[in-house]
Automatic annotation (TrEMBL):
Domain Helicase ATP-binding: 453-618
PROSITE patterns the UniProt entry points to: HELICASE_ATP_BIND_1 (PS51192), HELICASE_CTER (PS51194)
Pfam families: DUF3670, Helicase_C, SNF2-rel_dom
UniProt keyword Hydrolase present: yes
Protein name: Superfamily II DNA or RNA helicase, SNF2 family
Keywords: ATP-binding, Helicase, Hydrolase, Nucleotide-binding
Protein source organism: Sporosarcina newyorkensis
Taxonomic path: Bacteria, Bacillati, Bacillota, Bacilli, Bacillales
Domain Helicase C-terminal: residue ranges: 748-907
Length: 913
């Protein structure tokens, strides 16, 4: 390429503006479509730009270069490349380029800041004075913001610094007029003194520091200078004025004297925290004491030891704590009077021996205030247990925490024993199990019952969060038997549960506590107003059992009564705290509030707050305060300290045991089988009765083989209806939320499977119907985000084997299987829960399916759940199978016995209760 060609080089720029004021730029030679190399473009644009080391610091990606708007204004306000001319590749690019060139003129104008106005909202330009177009004004504004950010100046600080910029412009470093540097020096107090000295010093090339003689500190700069430096007096005065113009720690006048100012500790702190960073950003030299650069923060140690006089009963929770205080600084003990003096003097920097230490005076004052509150007897054992004692006195930290704490907390032996008992929930006052209980409690269940009693006795709500299968229900029923055997109990207890488990509660109350009178508050014909009030007033019921939906609808009526206790089962149902349901439940009144849940709630923070707002209103404060204190720092910032603090705060209120807890010594059977009772919905019940009436009429006209065939067909159709009305009616697919509303069995299976997955366990779900499996799969996916495979008879062997291997490797938590396709020949021992969605008339078929998990290789306790709809053929056939268990295996293991029932037996089987 000849020199003449070089002189004629014209580049066409393509510019793409980003959201942060940065531009992506590429170029092609005018008249040519091919982009030039990014390195070549950088060499042209930044060839004389020292701040980017002539383009070495300029980012590049995919053939484009990236430049900030302040860099572009700097480039286009300087002398351009002598051989290169720039234009836009398109009209839009030319508009951008013209705006940059226009803005660049103001950018290099010394009067730039005289056109700027600053406020709390940001900065703006007086466009009338500048004559800038709107686009050019925006570019200058973005560039100013970028430069301020690079200097470490926030927009909040800019208004106060604007006069400084208007007078001195952008920081330009040390002036070249002076053969020495003008600096500021901070000197610590002498021994037994409290004032620091901030003064101006001159530093020559060898690093020697010069300050005026003591007798001349009040003289003018010119008089204080030696003869050879007097010609620089005016320059020194201007540089000193520029430097102190940014200070906030102390107001210094830019007069004709050298700076010689005494500062207290508080002013020094502001100088170090606020003024020093600006001095460094503006390249104003500051000399600090060498030790201050690595000053040790707060070496004052405080040791508190709490104690109480004695522990006799749970009432001692109200016993006032006494505290013993000890102080030390740098390993040396100091007495309370010395500590008091440090607080009174508002000291921040303390010398101990040859070392200096920084103390936070606000923290010291806070400790003194707390000591005064302790002297007034403001905290009790109860406050210590529930972490109401301020953290400055009793800090929360892990025993494994290696950091040396500023406040060391200890307890006297008697208090430590009490706190251990309460926190670990061991050794609580013994309570005799009510004689009316029709069950034998395991040791851990006895502890749970005693803990519920203890929490009631001390007026504390409780969260019983044992794993599924550990018997939360029997522990609560034992507690209710005890409460309703007390002479002072004169109102019923309220239990609120999902509709899908109401049948279970009815059966379990009848089984374990038949002496308790249970009133079911549910359905269109439920008691209301005066009728309900009469039940309460006349003490016609010990237990009122209702559902979340009913309690929400009747919330105003229910909130008018004070119940002996209010228990919510599946407590996660109130997690959405803004819903009508959650608000209605949290407005109920009981002498004791209990929440039951089988899922861990420590990491679901909004759910945690809602449950605690129910059991112990106000304990975690308002939701806004809880969000600021815990949700934001934990969920956004993942701060371990806040996690520890929250765990410590909720731990006394919550009892959670898992099946894997070795301390429980469960000795559980290898397999536990239990029925899960669920009621039909109103829609199902109506369809059920209608279909039975219709079929009975047909049966009266048939005999022999035709009658047997119709019975089997009818039983199959009723089983489908018990599963879901959509199966019975052969309806098309619908949204998951709608599906679960129409079938309590569907809702219960889905929620139980999700709970099992949330606990890190795995389960198998068996069903006879392809449609049921597909609906379960859809609901788990849409409602809980769980992708569930469904193994059917049509699945190829290779795919089937791959799914089995994946499940055994723990790759998914829930596996749905067709009873016929998955009931035999599979090894699925990773599952420790088996859910039978619908009952088979032949128990052997169910047992074969259960044995997919309960077989050689299974090391975990297997929990088998058999879902039974209350009052239907499912419940009645289940009862008949139990009754016939003593008969011939051949009889039971065939479904033919169902067709041999006489008219009376068939009538009883089909009647819906």
């Amino acid at each position: 390429m000849t020199d003449s060609n070089i002189l004629q080089l014209a580049l066409e720029l393509t510019l793409k503006e980003g959201q942060d004021g940065a531009f992506l730029i590429c170029a092609n030679v005018a008249g040519e479509s091919k982009m030039i190399d990014a390195d070549m473009l950088v060499s042209y644009l930044f060839y004389s730009d020292e701040p980017t080391i002539y383009g070495m610091l300029v980012p590049q990606r995919d053939g484009w270069i990236e430049a900030t708007i302040d860099e572009l204004l700097r480039l286009f306000s300087a002398t351009g490349h002598p051989y290169v001319q720039y234009a836009g590749a398109t009209d839009a690019d030319n508009v951008i380029l013209d705006g940059i060139r226009e803005a660049a003129k103001l950018w290099q104008d010394p009067a730039l800041f005289s056109h700027i106005e600053a406020s709390a909202e940001g900065l703006s330009f007086d466009m009338g004075q500048t004559g800038l177009s709107e686009q050019a004004g925006r570019y200058v504004s973005l560039a100013v913001r970028g430069q301020l950010a690079a200097l470490g100046v926030s927009m909040a600080d800019f208004p106060t610094l604007l006069p400084h910029f208007q007078q001195y412009g952008w920081p330009s470093g040390e002036t070249t007029k002076l053969p020495f540097r003008v600096a500021l020096r901070l000197t610590e107090p002498d021994i037994d003194e409290t004032e620091w000295l901030l003064e101006t010093v001159l530093i020559n090339e060898r690093g020697t520091q010069w300050v005026p003689a003591v007798r001349k500190v009040s003289a003018s700069i010119e008089e204080a200078l030696p003869a050879k430096r007097k010609p620089y007096a005016k320059d020194i005065q201007e540089r000193q004025a520029e430097m102190i113009g940014i200070f906030r720690s102390v107001e210094l006048q830019a007069d004709e004297q050298f700076v010689h100012e005494f500062l207290n500790d508080a002013q020094v702190r502001v100088f170090i925290q606020e003024d020093l960073p600006l001095c460094q950003a503006f390249d104003y030299p500051v000399i600090l004491p060498a030790w201050l650069k690595s000053v040790t923060e707060t070496k004052l140690k405080i040791r508190t030891s709490a104690g109480m006089q004695s522990y006799r009963s749970s009432a001692s929770l109200d016993q006032v704590l006494s505290f013993d205080w000890q102080f030390s600084l740098a390993g040396e003990n100091i007495d309370r009077e010395q500590f008091q003096r440090m607080v009174d003097e508002n000291r921040e920097y303390i010398r101990a021996g040859d070392e200096w230490f920084h103390l936070d005076p606000a923290w010291l004052k806070r400790i003194r205030e707390l000591m005064e509150q302790v002297d007034d007897g403001e905290w009790t054992v109860k406050d210590l247990l529930f972490h109401e004692v301020p953290e400055e006195i009793a800090p929360v930290f892990d025993e494994e925490d290696e950091d040396d704490p500023l406040v060391a907390f200890s307890m006297q032996q008697s208090l430590r024993q009490v706190m251990t008992m309460l926190q670990e929930k061991k050794g609580l006052p013994e309570v005799a199990v009510p004689g009316a209980l029709q069950a034998e409690l395991r040791p851990y269940q006895q502890e749970g019952f005693e803990w519920l009693h203890f929490m009631r006795d001390n007026h504390f709500g409780a969260v019983l969060a044992d794993d599924m299968g550990l018997g939360k229900t029997v522990q609560l029923i034992t507690y209710l038997l005890y409460v309703h055997n007390l002479p002072e109990t004169d109102s019923p207890s309220l239990i609120i549960c999902p509709t899908s488990v109401m049948g279970n509660w009815q059966k379990e109350l009848e089984r374990f506590a038949p002496s308790l009178r249970v009133h079911v508050h549910y359905g269109a014909n439920r008691s209301r107003d005066e009728q309900f009030e009469s039940i309460i007033a006349n003490r016609e019921a010990d237990i009122i059992l209702t559902t979340y939906g009913t309690a929400t609808q009747d919330g105003e009526m229910l909130s008018a009564f004070t119940f002996a206790s209010v228990t919510i089962d599946e407590a996660q149902n109130i997690k959405n705290l803004q819903t009508k349901q959650s608000r209605a439940i949290r407005r109920l009144h009981g002498l004791h509030h209990i929440a039951l849940t089988g899922t861990p709630i420590e990491n679901r923070l909004s759910e945690l707050w809602a449950i605690f707002d129910f059991i112990h209103k106000g304990y975690l404060g308002s939701f806004r305060k809880f969000s600021d204190e815990f949700i934001v720092p934990i969920e956004r910032d993942d701060l371990e300290a806040e996690k520890r603090k929250l765990r410590a705060r909720i731990q006394p209120f919550m009892m959670r045991r898992t099946k894997n807890d070795p301390e429980l010594r469960l000795n559980l059977p290898e397999k536990l089988e239990q029925n899960e009772y669920v009621p039909l919905t109103t829609e199902q019940a109506a369809l059920y009765e209608s279909f039975v009436d219709e079929t009975k009429f047909k049966l009266e006209t048939l005999t022999g083989f035709e009658r047997k065939g119709l019975i089997l067909k009818m039983l199959s159709r009723l089983k489908q209806l018990c599963n879901h009305p959509a199966l019975f009616l052969k309806e098309p697919q619908a949204p998951a939320a709608e599906l679960t509303k129409r079938s309590n069995k569907m809702a219960r299976i889905v929620s139980m499977a999700a709970e099992i997955a949330a606990n890190g366990e795995q389960c198998l779900i068996f069903t006879q119907y392809i449609g049921m499996g597909q609906m379960l799969r859809q609901c788990l996916s849409e409602l809980h985000g769980i992708d569930v495979p469904f193994l059917t008879g049509s699945m190829p062997k290779g795919q089937r084997d791959a799914l089995v291997d994946a499940f055994q490797n723990g790759e998914f938590p829930v596996f749905i299987l067709s009873l016929k396709a998955g009931g035999t020949g599979l090894n699925l021992t990773q599952a420790n829960h088996v859910l039978h969605a619908d009952r088979w008339w032949n128990p052997a078929v169910e047992n074969q399916a259960t044995d997919r998990a309960y077989r050689i290789g299974q090391t975990k306790f297997v929990h088998v759940h058999k879902f039974v709809t209350v009052g239907t053929i499912e419940e009645k056939i289940d009862q008949m199978l139990v009754e016939k268990a003593a008969l011939s295996a051949d009889l039971i293991h065939s479904s033919q016995w169902l067709t041999e029932l006489n008219d009376r037996e068939l009538e009883d089987l089909l009647t819906f209760n």
